[in-house]
């Protein structure tokens, strides 16, 4: 289970980082609306991790599938948030201010609030997507009785 979580968590975070850097090259990294693509990247990675785990199990239990999906997303979130912390504090110190200005907030716009928001959004996205995908992947309790 841990190998699947680590492998797919790293893959998701690499794709997220690559997407961010490509959008920076194009000049679209300061528009929060494009972060919706992050949910698609998370979704695809979590679904692939859960399918891979299910294919290697003789008996697929709901709680194990849920753990794989959720912890894969959380692991990817931790890596991506760490990358963004390095980016915000070391590379582009004005980035977080530009992002938070687009929200029209009237209080201190520090980088930490953006990182906390990023982590909360990643974890909540992982939770919602995992619960949704488990509905597709779980074993049915319905019997095959003909009426």
UniProtKB/TrEMBL annotation:
Keyword annotations from UniProtKB, A to Z: Membrane, Transmembrane, Transmembrane helix
Signal peptide span: none
Top-rank taxon, per record: Bacteria
Transferase as UniProt keyword: no
Positions of transmembrane segments: 5-22, 28-47, 68-91, 111-137
Keyword Membrane: yes
Protein name, entry field: DUF4199 domain-containing protein
Native source species: Patiriisocius hiemis
């Amino acid at each position: 289970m841990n190998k699947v979580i680590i492998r797919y968590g790293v893959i998701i975070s690499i794709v997220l980082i690559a997407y961010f850097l490509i959008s920076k090259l194009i000049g679209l990294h300061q528009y929060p609306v494009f972060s919706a693509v992050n949910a698609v990247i998370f979704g695809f990675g979590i679904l692939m991790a859960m399918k891979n785990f299910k294919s290697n199990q003789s008996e697929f239990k709901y709680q194990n599938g849920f753990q794989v999906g959720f912890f894969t997303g959380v692991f990817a979130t931790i890596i991506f948030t760490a990358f963004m912390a390095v980016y915000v504090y070391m590379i582009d110190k004005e980035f977080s201010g530009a992002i938070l200005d687009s929200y029209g907030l009237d209080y201190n716009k520090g980088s930490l609030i953006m990182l906390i928001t990023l982590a909360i959004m990643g974890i909540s996205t992982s939770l919602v997507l995992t619960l949704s995908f488990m509905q597709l992947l779980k074993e049915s309790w319905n019997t095959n009785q003909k009426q």
